[in-house]
Design goal:
Layout: E1 2-6, E2 12-15, E3 23-30, E4 43-50, E5 67-70, E6 82-88, E7 92-98, E8 106-111, E9 121-125, H1 149-164, H2 173-210
Antiparallel strand pairs: 1-3, 1-9, 3-4, 4-5, 6-7, 7-8
Length: about 210
């Protein structure tokens, strides 16, 4: 089977079920050996297509191989097999495998800067020959590894703010000052309210007396 990161959408063809002369990246999990002496199969390899180069199926892509590794035991493994690809734009590309035991990743290969098309499609394909094989894709997950400069700057600003709030910082300082002001204001309002109430009550009593005559 194959994993594709290509400029064009997938279409049927002779390369693990995908068209040849692709532009982009292909990662092949090859379980059947055609003609490649000295190489142990199953074999995992990558090819960086330029749109004109063909995949040499008769020799299992030896001449067009970017990098690869043998993965004996990946078929019939006792744990669900996993493949992890990590790509840092124009910096590095790495492939790891998990098939020996759970949560144990084995490095397959890592290469330096490779350049992919600016817009790509992620695809999967499979092909079988005289000997049938079965591949089930259970789960696919992807994550953006890029951290923007704006995010870095905002993170540094937040850290600086937290350091400023460290020594001698009291989050209730402003609230305490406002509390004391409100306390004195209430002390001033209470006598005013009391005097106003007394004056009002006196005026009301005088008016009641006057109404008797």
């Amino acid at each position: 089977m194959a994993i594709w990161v290509t400029e064009d959408r997938a279409s049927p063809g002779p390369v693990f079920g995908h068209k040849d002369n692709f532009k982009g990246l292909g990662v092949f999990i090859d379980t059947y050996k055609n003609h490649r002496p000295g190489t142990v199969f199953p074999y995992v390899m990558a090819m960086l297509g330029n749109g004109t180069e063909k995949y040499d199926k008769d020799n299992d892509g030896k001449d067009s191989e970017l990098a690869g590794c043998s993965a004996r035991g990946i078929r019939g493994a006792s744990v669900p097999t996993k493949l992890r690809m990590t790509y840092y734009q124009e910096q590095s590309f790495k492939v790891e495998l998990q098939y020996k035991s759970a949560d144990e990743w084995t490095d397959c290969f890592e290469v330096g800067a490779i350049k992919l098309p600016p817009v790509t499609y992620l695809g999967f394909s499979g092909e079988t020959g005289e000997l049938t094989d079965n591949h089930d894709i259970i789960q696919i997950s992807s994550h953006n590894m890029h951290i923007s400069e704006a995010w870095k700057n905002s993170e540094n600003t937040d850290r600086g703010a937290r350091r400023t709030k460290g020594k001698g910082y009291d989050p209730n300082r402003g609230r305490q000052g406002g509390g004391w002001v409100w306390f004195f204001l209430k002390l001033l309002l209470i006598p005013v309210i009391a005097v106003g109430g007394y004056v009002g009550w006196t005026a009301y009593r005088s008016s009641k007396r006057g109404s008797r005559f």
